[in-house]
Amino acid sequence: MTINDDFVFKGIPTRVLFGAGTLARARDEVEKLGGKAALVLSTEHQSAEAERMVDDLGALAAGRFCEAAMHTPTDVTEKALGVATSVGADCVVSIGGGSTIGLGKAIAIRTGMPHLAIPTTYAGSEMTDILGETKDGRKTTRRDPAIRPNTVIYDVSLTLSLPKALTVTSALNAAAHAVEALYAPDGNPIVSQMAASALEALNRGLPLIMKDGADLEGRRQTFYGAWLSAIVLGQAAMGLHHKLCHVLGGSFNLPHSETHAILLPHTAGFNAGAARAALAPATDLFGDDLGGGLWDFAQSVGAPLRLADYGFTEADIPRAAEIAGTDRYDNPRDFDAADMTRILTAALNGDRPETF
Ligand code: NAD
To answer: Does pTM surpass 0.90?
Structure first.
């Protein structure tokens, strides 16, 4: 490959364990972090996993808190901090998706406690220095190196329980990080290679899982792709796609991974012509008609295609386009309200997108 531009590679400070059965090494990893009293975090839905982790950690576990919630509400964080203090916790272990890892980050940044994250979805929060929190219904996002978990354990076996619907949307959420990293203004050759490998692994793994949710090779490929996508999410600035998803999640309360899954073909199709060279790894996999190719792939793995199925309506489009036009993210192709209206209308109705 030719290296046309100077670049900065920011480095990856996180220690990562990847494999099947790696969860068994959590105790050693807590010890390596100097933890003697870990607070284990999960959602209520995954409290059994948290309980198992407490058992595995034995004397190194101080307690558990199983009330992690979507968008990291600060009142939940405050409650968790109260528990951390009352049990004398000196580190946090978060086991779950982006919501639980967000809670771990919120505690770590407030207390300076080390954080071991154990992701069970493909959302990718574990490899970033980004924390989104909600207070009184308003979401704010900040970046700080101290938000990054110190250690991440990817255990493929934990993803076997991920329902097929969440598997698909979460994997497409990961794919969206990789696609946007390919054309990111602060990208670099390493980020591009990781993003390309991420898309390859997701494209290979997801169809295997759709045939058989317990296909370990499919799960391994998809989790590997998700890890790489998570790294590039933490390394490169995201564009129009993430902006629209943040608007739909933050102002219209649309669900996170479903929104990413539905919008990706439309935003990729919109940017394809303006970033043709950068997107070559994606067009190699999904075709020159990138929007249509990604939409066909999404349809073939049973992904949701219509924002209308999640409560978004035609009447919401003008306000969404207006909010998306403020505080803009860098994007390879300039966009105006008419462009966003076209993208959102197609995504609302589940139309196969145009590629420009
Ligand atoms: P989630 O964490 O909200 O999980 C959704 C549901 O699935 C929860 O009930 C969870 O317990 C359950 N679940 C998770 N893994 C499971 C498994 N293996 N088996 C069975 N059930 C399982 O969903 P998500 O999509 O992972 O995360 C979304 C949140 O993460 C959003 O709030 C988003 O903003 C945030 N996020 C943040 C970043 C970042 O860098 N800060 C990155 C990505 C996502």
So the answer is: yes
Domains of the chain listed by start with CATH number: 15-159 (3.40.50.1970), 164-349 (1.20.1090.10)
How far apart are the C-alpha atoms of 198 and 178, rounded to whole Å? 7
Per-residue pLDDT band at 138 (split at 50, 70, 90): confident
Segment holding 25, helix H or strand E: none
pLDDT digits (tens, 9 = 90+) for 233-278: 999 999 999 999 999 998 899 999 999 999 999 999 999 999 999 9
Nearest atom within ligand 1 for CA of residue 147: 41
Helix, strand or coil for residue 217? helix
229 lines ligand 1 (CB under 6 A): no
Task: Pick from 40, 46, 94 the residue to mutate for probing ligand 1's pocket: most ligand atoms within 8 Å of its CB.
Answer: 46
Residue 20 near residue 224 (C-beta atoms within 8 A):
no
Percent of the chain whose pLDDT exceeds 70? 99
Contact 98 CB / ligand 1 (< 6 Å)? yes
Q: What is the pLDDT of residues 298-347, one digit of tens each?
A: 999 999 999 999 999 999 999 999 999 888 889 999 999 999 999 999 99
- Work out the widest C-alpha separation in the chain, in whole angstroms: 59
Rounded CA Rg of the chain: 20
Between the CA of 3 and the centroid of ligand 1 the distance, in Å, is: 36
Tokens for 318, please give them: 């003008």
Alpha-carbon span 147 to 192, nearest angstrom: 24
Where do the H-state alpha helices sit in 255-312? 256-272, 280-286, 290-300
Nearest one of 4, 74, 68, 5 to 39, comparing CA atoms: 68
Q: Is 332 helix (H, G, I), strand (E, B) or coil?
A: coil
